[in-house]
Amino acid sequence: MIRSRALPVLLSLAFACNLFAPPLSASAQDVTITINPGSSGETGQSDQAPFTGDRPAVDVAILLDTSNSMDGLIHQAKNQLWNIVQRFAKARKAGKTPQLRVSIFEYGNSGLPASEDYIRQVVPLTDNLDKVSEALFALTTSGGDEYCGAVINEAIKRLDWSSEPNAYQAIFIAGNEPFTQGPVNYDDACKNAIGEGVIVNTIHCGNYDQGVRGQWQAGAALAEGKFLNINQDEKVVHRKTPQDKIIIQLNAELNKTYLWFGAADRRRGYATNQAAQDANAGSGLSSRAAIKSSSLYSNVGRDLVDTYAEDADAITKLESEELPVELQKLTPEERVERIEAMSKKRAEIKKKLAELSRERQQYIDAQEAASAATPGPATLGDAITEAVEVQLQASGFQVEN
């Protein structure tokens, strides 16, 4: 039965098991991902109140084991962040794309205080996806004790989960040690999570049977989530497509349309971090560019164009020195003209990017269909995508293929 606040589910684990680390050797073992079909949130329609807000809420917390053995997991998380986010970009409720917020926690790292159960909130729930990417790429591993129940409890307690009825809220927790370790009983933590409307998806890194014995499957069942099993050392492969070159060029043009505001050091920081996360995306830049062409990549409160679209009066409340240098000496009317002109230019670039991204995905789908007779090993991103699609639909979203 789906609880009161939502059908949450996804990314913690998703990111958790395939987002980080340096390139792995081509000889990595085949990955096995198993999705448990038995949890109650997977089929049927939500019985929650319909969405009535400006944007449907989607909150995802990713809890990553950063102990010594998890370099491969972190590598996967880094490399598949934008692929995972793309699934949310294809979701609609009442014709509107969701307001996606993502949080990152790390646990099991001996560099963290033992008094805090080796847990750290890396990023609170935020719609600043560049900040999420930056946080992932800053993670490092070190041996420690992995307390799954404690980190789940901390995420539920500390984060400002949406209060919107029928929001989609999910934890994804990834790791390889028994789910039972630590001072907080996993049974209590998972029941507490689903009681708050937050689904818990578990991603065990390693042997499937070991994950079952270690209670990762039981934890997911308690919180109406999915139990996933992967090889965290499987190398992530990004397919090259004919569209990549133009997409990358358009991405560079898109970056020029951002009018960052705030104190001078903040403006520089926003621009620098946007470029840095483009660079971090590496061969996955086309996937990141696809997200930047969607409404999920929003910089309200940081960029004048996005902020003006949501609140046209917002720029009148800013001091001149908070504006981009090129706008500081303009009259209020000229500033509006510049923002509207940049908004039009950005919309044109985004439209082209979206079209090319669709063509790119069609090309990838055709390539994968052609090689279906001898499929390669699945990755965490594949498993998360499948889980997210089912869970979003159960939460009242329509998800495009």
UniProtKB/TrEMBL annotation:
Annotated signal sequence range: 1-28
Coiled coil recorded as keyword: yes
Keywords of this entry: Coiled coil, Signal
Keyword Cytoplasm: no
InterPro entries membership: VWF_A, vWFA_dom_sf
Entry coiled-coil feature ranges: 339-369
Residues annotated as domain VWFA: 59-207
Record's protein name: von Willebrand factor type A domain protein
UniProt source species: Allorhodopirellula solitaria
